[in-house]
Amino acid sequence: MWNLFGKKEKEEEPEQYVVRLITTKGIIEADLFTEEMPITTAHFMRIAQSGFYNGLQFFRYIPEILIQTGCPYNNGMGTAAHFGHIAQESCKIPLEEGVFAMPHTAPHMIGSQFFICLSQRGVAHLEGACPAFAKITSDITVLSRLRAGDLLEKVEIITIKPEEKEGGKEEGKEEGEEESE
After folding, report:
1. Which of 46, 68, 78, 154 could link 22 by a cystine bridge, Cβ 3.0 to 4.6 Å?
2. Contact, 28 vs 67, CB < 8 A?
3. What is the separation, in whole angstroms, between the first and last Cα of the chain?
4. Is there a domain that residue 179 lies in?
5. Is residue 10 part of a domain?
6. What range does the domain containing 140 cover?
């Protein structure tokens, strides 16, 4: 970007968003793909910030393939109707271990359910059909311990400002959290 005096200004780096899943088996953190998948991540963040996911079960576990949650009935037959469905976003992000994706609830529509890939095997046919929106950056062993029936106790969205990344500080603040002086 150029300023009024013809000098190039440093472009602002966007904030980074991290989702933290607090489960009965431990904590999982993942970077959200806000630039690559803006519609899907905004939809997920809106649902997460409402508290909808808090207390839901992981209702589907397919060994070495995926673990799924986000159904209000904990059986895969529902969605957060009051948030509506969004059009499925085109996705070129590969589904591999640690990637979060949203399955379609109707042709080309997604709701509140999401799954986390346990490996690339068994999900190749879902690539492009289920938009990926995050990838685990924390220790992957918590993911490997999750099973159907485990609880998703709480979901938090954390904002990491560019200056916090550059300064080596990895801790951001939760969305909506006030800074204390």
Report:
1. 154
2. no
3. 34
4. no
5. no
6. 16-168
HEC profile of the chain: CECCCCCECCCCCCCEEEEEEEECCEEEEEEECCCCCHHHHHHHHHHHHHCCCCCEECCEEECCCEEEECCCCCCCCCCCHHHCCEECCCCCCCCCCCEEECCEEECCEECCCEEEECCCCCCHHHCCCCCEEEEECCCCHHHHHCCCCCEEEEEEEEEECHHHHHCCCCCCEECCCCCCC
pLDDT at 163 over 70: yes
- The model's pLDDT over 139-154, given as tens digits with 9 standing for 90+, comes to 999 999 999 999 999 9
Any domain includes 173: no
Residue 178 lies in a domain: no
Q: pTM for the full model?
A: 0.83
CATH number at residue 92: 2.40.100.10
pLDDT at 162: 80
Query: What long-range pairs does 170-175 form, CB within 8 A, spacing at least 24?
Result: 172/16, 172/18, 175/17, 175/45, 175/49
Exposure string for 111-134, b = 16+ CB within 10 A, e = fewer: bbbbbbbbeeeebeebbeebbbbb
**Rounded to 5 degrees, what are φ and ψ at 46?**
-60, -45
C-alpha to C-alpha distance for 160 and 162, rounded to whole angstroms: 7
